């Protein structure tokens, strides 16, 4: 399939870029700093290592996603390679879809790599596994901190949504403009608890604006679950439903952004 | 060779535009999903306290991190910095960090606990006496922590412990410990299948003892014994559970024995072989065998030896180990209100308060209290001051309680103005013996409900009203400065 071929090529190109590797290596290094804080009590050390690890995955994922995805389409136009591609029997929607899939794959690879390092550290820190427990025993004993995987998975879907947004902007905006727009919407989208409170404001105008922001803009704050999961004693109700809803939300919103990107890219002169 | 670019006919573009309804439907679906997510999302988001607790708010650089989802990481790193300040003794720097961290991560229960302990215990004068003005902020911080972490027993326990140990507010401690015991069971907790650790039952029982409510203490020890027996049934070789169980059984038996020795004419052991209840034991060697309370013959002496340096002493007729409480405050001193949330760590520099206690040795007590070295703690900026010297049987040693009783029933003073009956319902104990100010019937261990508290707390108490002039040693303090107000 053409879109898959384009996606594969997109990933290859992204992996050739040094900036991707720099972000990834720095992130892995920062995650590795977590156990250095072992001078605190085991509980505090565990909390700090987990919060630091998840935060680094989020921050590195954020920069990798934006820096990689803002160039996916503009660079093809700037280098004029898009002419070569579109002169072949390739539909424009296939091109955009391929770029989307390529962007998602990059996000997946980077989050998965950082997540693996992070979970390995959680294992070696030993707070949850008990003395001398092997990896398999740890994974199957029920002591494995599943909520850490949940944190990494939700970060992936958050970044997937961000990648979709960035690629959507890249169909009509310059990379610099795209960077600020994506980053700005990411920050606004992280204020979900604030925007939700705006929706119930007594002022009609504020409430209307709050509703538009809260329900129409991509809501990145939904995926921030760190506070509840890094504290082992916090009990979370409806966790499965919450995760499922968030994943569905990310998929639907990404699909919407993909359709919009296709519509805009179709009308664009290249 | 010229590049051939595929031109999309108008029809194709129009066909693509037909996707717009799909976009709208998708956005509608996303909005619907958002509505589904919102109710559950609240439990993942730290409570926003900005409207409630922040007077000035956070600076932009601190806000940026939380905006990027870095709240907990920022809080964790700040806590590491706090730890360094603790080790270097830079205590003043810790307070704002504690405030910041608990804003960023309201689930950081150890920060609430350590921060409150720091406030209540670590700000001291040159003689290691706590600055009591920090008690209210400390309590407020803990109450805020409880509110933000209601499903965790630790902060409730700490709130209770501070009231028990530092403030001697045993009723308040009881409420906090009960709250901890009632914590919802959490399968992720080390205390599962219980809401709070076993030690909470133990301290709650001791809190009842401190209030002279032994029947309730006995009930609490029974609950603790049942729980440790369950633990032993699950793990018969658990040495810790075994020793806890033994201690609980011993404490339970000890409370019953003490009740018999102190208040009844039967069931005595070697500690009280006489036929009298120990709290009304006739004086040794006296021909008059009428049961009576013990005259402590309190004779306080208060002098100023140098400006702002008090010499507190006097006579107190008891065995060694009694402690005379000393409280020096502004005449109209009022504790800062505990608000349940902490807006401000600062204390009122115009307030003066000192609380200390002096041990009695061979019926005599004496201490020099130098308040001149800490002008930030003791500003003496008011015109008049209240000096209260008192003896509270509830905070005394068990061997003295044997004679004085849990509520001071066996204690009196020939000088009647020294005897103060505290009838505040929050401090009344169980009535164990007739004729000591309580409303009958007294507890008999069988028919009278143990929740029947009517025994007033009997204190020995003397209050002085002295002027700033006297504190500056420009005018002597005399017995005329003793006031009848209690």
Description:
The complex is a heterodimer of chains A (270) and B (486). The mean pLDDT of chain A is 83. By secondary structure, chain A is an all-alpha fold. Chain A contains 13 helices and no strands. The longest helix of chain A is centred in the middle third of the chain and has 34 residues, at 92-125. Chain A has helices spanning 2-16, 18-32, 42-69, 74-78, 81-86, 92-125, 135-140, 146-170, 175-190, 192-199, 204-216, 226-230, 239-267. Chain A has one domain (2-267). Chain B has 486 residues and is an alpha+beta fold. Chain B folds into two domains: 53-263, Tetratricopeptide repeat domain (Serine Threonine Protein Phosphatase 5, Tetratricopeptide repeat), CATH 1.25.40; 294-483, no CATH class. Helices cover 40% and strands 15% of the residues of chain B. In chain B, strands 4, 5, 7, 9, 12 and 13 form a six-stranded antiparallel sheet that branches. A three-stranded antiparallel sheet of chain B has the order 2-3-6, with no helix packed on it. A two-stranded parallel ribbon of chain B has the order 1-8. In chain B, strand 2 and strand 3 form a beta hairpin. The longest helix of chain B is centred in the middle third of the chain and has 25 residues, at 239-263. The model of chain B is unreliable at 48-62 (pLDDT under 50). The interface between A and B is large, with 66 and 58 residues.
Notable characteristics:
heterodimer; A: 270 residues; B: 486 residues; alpha+beta; Serine Threonine Protein Phosphatase 5, Tetratricopeptide repeat; six-stranded antiparallel sheet; three-stranded antiparallel sheet; 13 strands
């Amino acid at each position: 399939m053409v879109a898959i071929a384009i996606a594969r090529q997109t990933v290859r190109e992204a992996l050739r870029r040094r900036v991707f590797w720099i972000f990834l290596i720095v992130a892995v290094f920062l995650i590795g700093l977590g156990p250095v804080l072992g001078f605190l009590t085991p509980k505090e050390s565990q909390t700090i290592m987990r919060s630091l690890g998840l935060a680094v995955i989020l921050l590195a994922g954020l920069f990798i996603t934006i820096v990689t995805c803002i160039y996916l389409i503009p660079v093809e136009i700037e280098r004029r390679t898009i002419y070569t591609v579109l002169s072949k029997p390739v539909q424009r929607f296939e091109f955009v879809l391929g770029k989307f899939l390529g962007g998602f794959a990059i996000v997946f690879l980077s989050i998965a790599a950082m997540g693996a390092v992070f979970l390995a550290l959680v294992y070696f820190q030993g707070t949850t596994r008990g003395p001398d427990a092997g990896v398999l025993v740890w994974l199957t004993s029920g002591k494995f901190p599943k909520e850490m995987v949940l944190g990494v998975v939700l970060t992936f879907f958050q970044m997937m949504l961000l990648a979709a947004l960035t690629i959507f902007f890249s169909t009509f905006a310059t990379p610099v403009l795209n960077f600020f727009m994506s980053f700005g919407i990411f920050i606004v989208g992280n204020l979900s608890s604030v925007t939700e409170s705006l929706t119930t404001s007594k002022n009609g105008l504020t409430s209307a604006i709050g509703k538009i922001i809260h329900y129409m803009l991509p809501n990145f704050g939904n995926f921030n679950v760190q506070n509840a999961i890094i504290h082992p004693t916090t009990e979370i109700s409806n966790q499965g439903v919450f995760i499922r809803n968030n994943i569905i939300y990310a998929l639907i919103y990404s699909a919407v952004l993909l359709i919009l990107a296709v519509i805009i890219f179709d009308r664009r002169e290249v | 060779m010229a590049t051939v670019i595929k031109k999309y006919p108008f029809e194709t573009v129009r066909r693509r535009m037909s996707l717009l309804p799909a976009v709208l439907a998708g956005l509608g679906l996303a909005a619907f999903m958002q509505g589904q997510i919102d109710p559950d999302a609240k439990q993942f988001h730290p409570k926003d306290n900005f409207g409630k607790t922040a007077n000035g708010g956070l600076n932009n650089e601190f806000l940026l991190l939380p905006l990027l989802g870095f709240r907990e990481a920022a809080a964790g790193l700040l806590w590491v910095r706090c730890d360094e300040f603790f080790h270097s003794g830079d205590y003043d720097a810790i307070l704002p960090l504690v405030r910041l961290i608990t804003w960023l991560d309201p689930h950081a229960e150890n920060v609430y606990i350590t921060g409150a302990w720091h406030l209540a215990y670590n700000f001291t004068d040159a003689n290691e006496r706590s600055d009591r003005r920090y008690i209210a902020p400390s309590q407020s911080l803990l109450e805020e922590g409880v509110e933000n972490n209601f499903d965790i027993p630790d902060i409730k326990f700490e709130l209770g412990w501070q009231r028990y140990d530092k403030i001697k507010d045993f009723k308040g401690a009881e409420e906090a410990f009960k709250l901890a015991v009632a914590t919802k069971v959490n399968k992720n907790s080390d205390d599962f299948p219980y809401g709070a650790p076993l030690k909470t039952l133990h301290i709650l029982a001791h809190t009842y003892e401190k209030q002279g409510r032994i029947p309730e203490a006995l009930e609490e020890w029974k609950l603790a014994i049942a729980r440790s027996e369950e633990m032993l049934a699950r793990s018969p070789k658990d040495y810790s559970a075994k020793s806890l169980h033994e201690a609980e059984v011993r404490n339970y038996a000890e409370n019953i024995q003490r009740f018999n020795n102190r208040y009844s004419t039967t069931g005595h052991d070697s500690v009280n072989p006489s036929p009298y209840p120990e709290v009304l034991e006739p004086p040794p060697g006296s021909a008059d065998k009428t049961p009576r309370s013990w005259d402590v013959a309190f004779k306080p002496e208060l002098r100023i030896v140098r400006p702002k340096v008090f010499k507190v002493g006097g006579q107190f007729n008891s065995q060694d180990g009694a402690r005379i409480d000393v409280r020096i405050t502004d005449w109209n001193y009022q504790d800062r209100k505990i608000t349940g949330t902490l807006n401000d760590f600062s204390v009122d520099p115009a307030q003066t308060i000192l609380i200390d206690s002096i041990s009695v040795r061979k019926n005599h007590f004496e201490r020099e209290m130098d308040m001149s070295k800490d002008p930030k703690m003791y500003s003496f900026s008011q015109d008049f001051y209240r000096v209260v010297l008192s003896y509270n049987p509830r905070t005394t040693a068990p061997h003295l309680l044997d004679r004085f009783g849990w509520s001071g029933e066996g204690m009196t003073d020939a000088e009647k103005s020294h005897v103060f009956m505290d009838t505040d319902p929050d401090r009344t104990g169980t009535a164990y013996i007739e004729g000591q100010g309580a409303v009958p019937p007294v507890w008999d261990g069988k028919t009278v409900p143990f929740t029947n508290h009517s025994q007033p707390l009997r204190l020995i108490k003397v209050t002085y009203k002295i002027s700033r002039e006297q504190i500056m040693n420009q005018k002597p303090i005399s017995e005329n400065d003793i006031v009848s107000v209690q």
